[in-house]
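Hello Y.,

Per our agreement to keep a running log of every chain we model this quarter, I'm adding this entry. I've kept the format consistent with earlier entries: sequence first, then predicted structure.
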Amino acid sequence: MGNRLIQQKSKMSIEELIENFSFLEEWEDKYRYLIELGEGLSPLPDSFKTDAYKVEGCMSQVWLVPTLNEGHYTFKADSDALIVKGLIAVILAAYDGKTKEEIADVDIDSIFQKLGLETHLSPTRRNGFFSMVSKIKSLD
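Predicted structure for the entry above:
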């Protein structure tokens, strides 16, 4: 399966991501796909791996760097854990390029369910995922 699903795009929409996940029936395939998504993220320069950008509430180290340009937020993020990097890719697909109002309108719970993540991620990874979401939603 692997790279056939990962489209080399600068940005994958959440709809494309949900569609790709729908082709994967086994959790192991979804897990591998999450890891591949994380491997596709651009590396975050070490200069951003500071407490100012660290996401609290994650067991792994996670850094989230927001940029606001003409009312739209873009994000760069990284983690020291492969599966978490995949979760970051999901979050970026859901929130990157959106305005504060559009961010508020994202139904991340529904997305999480459509991807089939709610029953397979450990509670600590789930908490970390939603800690990243909370950080994004709290931006001014």
